[in-house]
Design goal:
alpha+beta; five-stranded mixed sheet; 46 strands; 32% helix; globular; WD40/YVTN_repeat-like_dom_sf; WD40 repeat domain-containing protein; WD40_rpt; TPR-like_helical_dom_sf
Length: 904
Amino acid sequence: MVIMNLPLSSAGPEALSVALRGADWPAFAPARDLPPLRAALAELERTHGITEAHRFATERLKDAGAVLRHPDGHPAEINGFALSPCGRYLAIGSWCGDDYERGGALQVWELATARCVNVLDGIEGGVGWPGYVRTIQWSADGQRIALAFNTNGVGLWDPFGEETESIGEAYVTDGSSRPPRFAFAPDGTRAYISVWTPHDVRGCLAPLTEGGVYGDDDVELLPEALPADIKARLEDDGLFFSRAFWSKDGTRLHGYGDDWAGAVDVASGQVVWFADAETRGAGPAWSQDERYVARHLRGQLVFADAMTGRTVATAQGHPGATELSWGSRGTVGRLAVVVPGGGRARPRVAVYDDGWHRYDVDVALMEIDRDDVDGTVWAWSPDGLHAAALTDTGRIEVWHLGDGPVRLRSFAAPEEAFGVAWGADGVLVSVSATHLRFVRAATGETTGDFALLQAPPEPRPLELDGDDIGMDLRDEEEARVDPTFALDDETWAVAFESGLVIAPPDRRAALDNLLAWTFDGRFGWPVRWGVLDVVPDAAAAAERAVAPLAEHLAGFRGRTEAPSGPVAWPPPNTATVEDLFQIASTSVAPLDEGWDHHVSENLRHAARLRARRGEPAGAASLLQAIPTPAERVRGQADVALILAATGRHDEARAFLAPAEAEVEAVLDEYNVAFVASSMAGAYAALGDVEAEAWFDRARAAIEPETNPGEHRLAVAWALIECGRVEEARALWREGDTPSTFYSVPLLAYLVLTRRDGLARELLTFRDGAEAWQAQGWFDGWEAPELFASLGRPDLLRDWAAVHGDGYAWEELLTRAEANVRPGPRPTQADLAALAEAHTTLLKTPRTQRERPTEQLIVQAATCGHLGAVVDLLSELSARDFNGRAGYAFRALWITALGADVEPW
């Protein structure tokens, strides 16, 4: 055994070095040997600095499998955390970022070293869900961890292992689209999951060690009938735990629901006790030794026996209390009641010992919503003599709570911190959505301070020809995580597991504050105790790397780094509408058939736009690419109708001919109204007698139950386009108000084709010969937004005359008037706004840039900067229609029409 024969650190570095060289390293047992070895070397460093003994021990650990870890890698904000029962580890989890398939991440941090020691990256569907609590729970022995994951699943993992796939999982909530409420059994093998079963006690016991469990398969229900008085109290809704906890011996579930608290025997399903309780705000809380349960009830603070529910003490209640927190001091149960103040109440923490009020601690604590975040603002020390308080000023205060409260020290918490935890050996951890800070309670010394989700604007070191080699390493399982991380908000670095590091030469000292050698997924080891191989760039790393990493970095060999510095943005505005047509067309080509409906519909819209622009060749190319036969036929007839209506009859017949040949074959019960109306309109615009029969078919096919508004407007558009306005007017007045998804495009069509009278009729109609009354189609924001975009203040005023009350339409009127006579586009103000938004985008984590990029594309298209649009489209995902393809079409509509609506 390595450690037993080591001399004291006071013997000097030479003696310790000799002992380490003579130790039996093959017999090294991490849990037994690494902590005392680390402690001995830490003491040696304090007296002699870093010595050969430190370097030798580090090399032995590397030989035994230690890997280099960085603290970065969450794709989204921290939405859950949990301290292990031993207090030595903190688990933090994140949901998915933009790429749902990438999953979320679970990190395990060792409090003793304040370093990330293990990462499970790529957990399917992410860990938990924003706004949900207790989605991370440890087993009693700290060897397993249960997570709410993948929307509505509960799964089991080894928190110190390497496998991101769950050991077992349960999906029992009938397709619920949110994380289930669950309680992890202390034995680490199963979970109670609250679910609306038909039994009186709602929920099931699901195994987590047997693969997948789905629905009611292989789960144990709690079928025991409720006593009549409890059932009446619950109004026959059943007993449903909104918060449940297992007893330490695994025999009972205790917790609370809406306005009650209680306990259920696991084996029998019988209710052990049940009592009224106030569960909003500071819900009921069980003492650590499970002797007591405290709850508020009718103006009193009630202490009850946790085994029987029998009241053992009462005290004056604390209205507005936000947290009940139990600690222990020997055999004494200590309760802290957090009162934020407000009104005449002073902010304080009331401390009770075994139900007796001891004193108040005069401190104003931060108010957090404990239904949304896992945090606590009051954390007891394990000995119950101290506590850490997260104050409303954003500081953490450490208090001694003996005979009277004494504040010992205070230090800053991370900005927007929502919790503080007191771990083993007096280490405090404060957590925010993007920050972790580790502090020694006894001294205030910060041992670790980590800003997560930083996004330096400069290129990542492993980007090569549009690809990120770091992500490739992760995806191909050559590395557990993407090795690229942020040194700060301006600088990227790379930490390969082997110890090869890419970082600026002058930032070497900063690495020790972020990186750690990690061993066995449990223990951190300071990087300063060994030798890191630090190089300035990927080209140098490629020369230094060994297989298999060398093969991945081969493309960097001999490359000269591009000059650093900001790149001017937006780019030159040289792109055209034709470029947008081409990008939209090519971006849908590789999409799989699951997107055929979206692809077909948008290609048809684009073909209609080409026809309106007098570009039949472009329309033909788009129609040819439509994968759905019915949509292709409909599109051919649409284009024929538009061309014929403008007198281009020969070109119109060229489009109509293939539609005529195929139309009967593509008709089905769902599309007759759409296809028939387009065929009818084309025939009518060409003066063909077939028009009437097709219009009759279209009208007859208007489905009264399924999308009748969409059907009617499709027929109405064909009638208007071929000049039969009265029939269209009569048709759209039939039936109920159509969805704005369909009515707004029609309204835009009427305005763009100068049919203002019809547009006004859609806004209002005459009832007899008296005043105008709203028809109800456009009583929301859609119509005024459209009029503002199209520069039609006259129509906006007409709308406001009927609908303007309660709507801030004056700002839209200013926009509309500005768009009447637009000057050069984009303006200098537009360029400045684009540059500012892009700067903000570059500071956004890459895993969360999708939505801001989409918004910036719309902003660029709206002001006419197509160069910026084209540049940004390349940043969106090409894997599904909602990414690059969808926003290429959307930018096309905005650019060509002036409004964010598909063309009719």
